[in-house]
Structures
1.
Amino acid sequence: MLVYFTRQCLVAFLFVDLLGLGQVGSAQEEATRPNIVFVFSDDHALQAIGAYGSKINETPNLDRLASQGLVFDRSYCANSICGPSRACILTGLHSHLNGFRRNGDRFDGSQWVFPRALQQTGYQTALLGKWHLETDPTGFDYWQVLPDQGHYYNPDFLMMDGSRQRVPGYCTDLITDASLKWLDQRDQSKPFLLMCQHKAPHRNWSPHPRHFGKYKLGTVPAPESLRDDYSGRSRVLQESEMTIKDHFYWGHDAKFHGPNEFPDHFRDGIPNGEYQRMSPEQKAAWDAYYQPENEAFLTKMRAGELSADDILVWKHQRYMHDYLGSVQAVDDSVGRVLEYLEANNLTKNTIVVYSSDQGFYLGEHGWYDKRWMFEESLRMPLIVKWPDHIAPGTRSNALVQNIDYAPTFLAAAGVKIPEQVQGTSLLPVFAGGGAIPANWRDAIYYAYYESDSVHEVAIHDGVRTDRYKLMFFQRTNEWNLFDLVTDPNEMKSVHDDPQYRSILRGMQQRYRDLRGFYQVNSATIPVTRGDEAWWKQRDREKTALGKQQAHDLVFIGDSITQGWEEEGKAMWDQHFANVPSLNLGFSGDRTEHVLWRLRRGQMGISKPRAAVIMIGTNNTGHRMQPPLETAAGVSEIIGLVQQQSPATKIVLLGVFPRGETAFDPMRLNNVALNQSLSRLDDGEKVFYRDLSSLFVKEDGTLPREIMPDLLHLNEAGYQVWAEALVPILRELEVYP
Ligand code: CA
């Protein structure tokens, strides 16, 4: 029974949703609701899947699944890293809305997640394997998960009763065993959702002995861009730390024991933790394979026989042996799941999905790891088999994303898709034999937030269409544009090529519009600048100060506030040194950085009498962010201060005027921002004050004698500011 309904162009199997929860009526309908088996791996690149044209390995079981179903060739993640991708899948929301933007965040399991929606309509739900969202899973009848990243050898599992159990064996096999056991023990009268989520082939890529030597050293071809020099694109590329050449660890990655003999070529500091977990028998099997290869390499190294390039190639080969070996067990797992379904007569009415949380670099651009918006890690494998609904051997070029999984599963189960879900059901793609449906999306939005962590990949976001990819790098305020037809390896940005001028403009417009569509307001999304050394240092110092001592006055802002420590120091000493005052001004900060700092507790133990806030000119300025977006960021800052210290009086200062004349676009942006900020004055706790008139001459120009660069104050400017601010503070009775 196919019933179509139109809601954001969704087409779904709808089994009469009488109660609004999607409850299913008759036993007959119950019997026809499809089971869902979601086999999900971690970091499995498309380059290492036969059905996606792998030139380096064989995946017979995945290929069998693909031949029986639909292969999505343009399937992408919304944020290329483990935890965030999982959160996108569970919620159908982009990271900034589901709240899990970076690893280390804690997933709010009380929000809507698709497994609970299925559970509430009669599905049995189970999750086995990698989770990585910090909080306990919700929406599952049964779960058994790896703590954090988990381990390949003799892994620990967190159980529903709170216990932690170490299970001897190999992780990928154990997760498959547990999944099939759960299937055996389930209530056979109900449809089920099984999420079988592997750790493999995540770093540190530790294969099972049955796959040792399957991809021998010297047999795996290197990608064309292994020796990428990162020219012709943003300089932030060179700053990341995930190259095989320079960031490959002696123990963890290269699998050597003992001290690092060649620190010029291998990094120190992370031993092979998997080896340490192994039983004596496992260690013996491991060493029997690895030791001869390691010794052969080290003998040549000690003799000085290998060039830098030889060493790079060897490292890539070792990486591929281990990575592809780890993939092989995942392929075995898919085979076992398919066989189980066949043996138990479950094939016909079960949707089998294979995916991985993101793609991965297998030496492309010289890298391992993921994170970047380049194709290898932006893409996700997505293979779906559903007999009678998907023709065998189908492929699709529709642009799809991991936020689409939740609505797809709901639609397949006949459950109503909540309004807030941002993804789109893929059922129309299934129904159309893979053809791109009418009114399908023309572009996907991507955002990465984890800049100050391992691998040092800069914050960036962007848009990918059928042919082009636009990336924006926040820190350097740079665009990169790639033409994926003429430059499929993304080796040269054409953003400054005159021939691409109109395409750049069009893509920038699409970027802005898509951010609007997905409710992305960067002014309200807390992000760190911890990848800038001075900022990180200042952040540490200020946070320490906040913990040491309670302050009566806290100044929150950007360079203009920070300037009290420089050009304004004499004025500060004269007016604010007599009360405990804390300067939380950070040069170049936008509202989103202040949000990050305050959320991390930078006000410390203070419950200040007053907080003086002036922020936003770096949003409205060279970024030219719309004033209403910036005002929303300021509003959230006020909310955070109030949350932390409800009694604090907030002196919200209008952003100072800037630019040459009254009609400077940045000036006008600040005028509009101030208009919005004035509305935040509640006469009780928030007091808006606009001091702009003190800095503007009658003809609308700014006096260079107090604002030399037409943005920042000099000492005379700080005097004007101090002498205006002190009476305001006195009036509010927060200053002696
Ligand atoms: Ca991952």
2.
Amino acid sequence: MGVGIIGLGKYVPEKVLTNHDLESVLDTTDEWIRSRTGIEARHIAADDENTSHMAIKATQIAIDNAGIKPEQIGLILVATVSPDQGFPSVACQLTEHFGIQCAAMDIAAACSGFIYGLVTAQQFLENNSYEYVLVVGVEKLSKVTDWNDRNTAILFGDGACAAVMTKVSEGRGILASELGADGSGGKHLYLNEENHIAMNGREVFKFAVRQMGESAVQVLEKAGLQKEDCDFLIPHQANIRIMEAARERLNLPEEKMSKTVHKYGNTSAASIGLSLAEELEQGKIKDDDIVVLVGFGGGLTWGAVTIRWGK
Ligand code: ACO
């Protein structure tokens, strides 16, 4: 048997903040942001809409799409670096909302968090600990963004994704995975004492360009596949230039890479699942397609999975 995703959900808050909106409060231009990052807009949660609220919305859609009841979930993993509070975890808040009791914990691996969640869930499903595991990626980065810092304020957005995982047919689901972390790069991207994202953009950029391409190639090789076997690439949506470097490393045509960064910005742990859900909605991923998900983030962390899509 394999282990795979049987239901996905996504959610973004209603309010859109465009580059033009930022032009009026920061020393920046739409042209600069667009050409350096590919971002045109991002969604921002309302003051009274917290991380857990967005997680609940994406989860409801995922469990409906999976056709299961909340009480069938044995483990909830929530990838986030912007929880409502240190504890209870967002995962515990989800158990309260859905009126269930099960194992629940948050994962802090920044933008790689959703991949860390998928791979962690896979272990528990393979060893038969649980029948269904819920993996959520959710961020309210707007509350940890320094809105006076043009280096970072232009990049981030809010949103959520959720995936229900269970056993699927042999040969489908997660075929290979790759997780990593190197704390020596932690100083380049972190939450500072003011609880704001602090970043050395150039260092993170260099790391990301190298790591995303390498991880994508490695996770295909681990699955016994070649670059040309990849049908669709879902890279972490941080910066179109970083994403393009990964796509070129795999020699993929433009239409085979997911691109949502222009409208959502970088939603950290939510970004990969959000993009995956969107591509599925648009029918771009079909049964038996080989899909590579790859991300990098604060830590510094990285992660990738090769999935053969379908149940
Ligand atoms: N508007 C106008 N000018 C700006 C802005 C802005 N918003 N931000 C920076 N600049 C200026 C800089 O001050 C610099 O000016 P200087 O040359 O006079 O010093 C100039 O633009 C060029 O700056 P660079 O840093 O060289 O610009 P670069 O092309 O590297 O782009 C960017 C910067 C977009 C931040 C890029 O480095 C990047 O995307 N890095 C990766 C960031 C990332 O992905 N972080 C998220 C990681 S995921 C997570 O875990 C949260």
